[in-house]
Amino acid sequence: MSTAYIWEINAKNSPLLKKKCNHCDSNRFQCSDKFRLNAQKKNIDIWLIYRCIQCNNRYNLALFSRIRTESISKDLFQKMSENNSEAAWQYAFSHEIRRKNNVEADLDSVEYNIVHEEISVNEMLHLPSETLTFKINYPFDFHLRMSAVIRRCLNLSLRQLEQLIDNNAVSVNGRPLQKKHKIKNGDMIMINRQSLIVILSKENH
What we know:
Layout: E1 2-11, E2 16-18, E3 28-40, E4 43-52, E5 58-68, H1 74-81, H2 85-92, H3 95-101, E6 104-106, E7 112-115, H4 121-125, E8 131-137, H5 146-154, H6 158-166, E9 170-172, E10 175-176, E11 188-192, H7 193-203
Parallel strand pairs: 1-8
Antiparallel strand pairs: 1-7, 2-3, 2-6, 3-4, 4-5, 8-11, 9-10, 9-11
């Protein structure tokens, strides 16, 4: 039996693109959350518009090229036509789209917050389960390390987290946590409750 908590990681902005501007000396472009659609007969080209962070010069990130309009769902087409920001972010965070356009993202430019419930040592002492389970909601992937999120949400020092890892007290999706593990949406973290209490109690004494 385990007690489950939700950790929701929300990006505050989409990643900048690492791209040299041909109008100024900037090398970063920001997503405008706007699409450009160009229909020719029964085919359509669609781009996501980026702007230079210094001079506002435009760069079009190709999403669809010469495809039949009926190949795109009506819902997605409508969102693009209305410059839906959520749809824009789905593409702005897409590694595959960047790969096809041969551009790189500055993932360190993404700021984020984590919505999570604080759990005190006293509360942990009275939980009925041997394991604490945390489910990750992470809709936009920007290569965040699991170790950074665990430390932030549980207020752990690097040394404390390393102790948990050395004691095999932390697992992700049923496997021991690796220090370089990158988060995926839906990841399940399981931490041995007693091991966590011991480590947190040592720090408080």
